[in-house]
Prior knowledge:
single chain, 289 residues, alpha/beta, Rossmann fold, nine-stranded mixed β-sheet, four-stranded mixed β-sheet, 9 helices, 26% helix
Amino acid sequence: MNCPKGKLIAIGGAEDKGTDLEKGEILRNNLNFFELGILRRIIEETGGIDKRIEVVTTASSIPVEVGENYLNAFGKIGCTNVGLLNIRNREDAKKEEYLERIKQCDAVMFSGGNQMRLTAIFGGTEFLDILKHRYQNENFIIAGTSAGAMAMSNTMIYEGNATKAHLKGEVKITTGLAFMDNVIFDSHFEKRGRFGRLAQAVAANPSCIGIGLGEDTGMMITDGNVMQAIGSGLVIIIDGHELGHCNIADIPEGNPISVENLKVHFCENGNGFLVKERKFMVEVVEDAL
């Protein structure tokens, strides 16, 4: 398959929307929302504030509130050409109006919520086919936060208690929207202590690179391969390509897993990673793009 011409922007959740946050909730590390924020980066990659962005609130149980939050947030940085697609079921996903809007827009952003809603509603639809075609063949941006990021990959975590993630069977995996087929995304990574569940997901699927996205932090993916960390926090990469011992195939469910030689990389804003080459980059150089 040829390299996609579009870009993915996977965000770990709780991206700064220019609102006041409770003290101690998220450390911003002095990054200024209006200059370096993730939403501004989405606008820049899309081509400027006049470009059309459609926000898909399907994953959320409170779509109206979430949609208004994004309209306000984008508006604060001068982007008012933003629409909301409140698709609640598969019948909505087939509506000609929505299909035409995603054919005409410059970027789509999936909100957070429940990633299973995204796969159950969009799987096998023309809506998803259009997105995949545009991502593959056009300079088209697909962004997603929290559940919207986790659903981007072919292999998707849909459930997993962080406190029991070291036990076989506690991490549930299914098929995602499949914009990428060689990664697994996890979100709210540090805040919710999800290292163990991503590690188990990678141990069971060592052909995939695990991408643990911190809050207000994301990975921008170019050519389906070149990843660059953006935002104020941390992205943790878990690479299982050189696994040695792994007992996950042989033990009963509920038993602790045993894994040798997982590689781990910590990425801050600006660091990069090449998925196919499994190579960490201190800085994403032009040649890699």
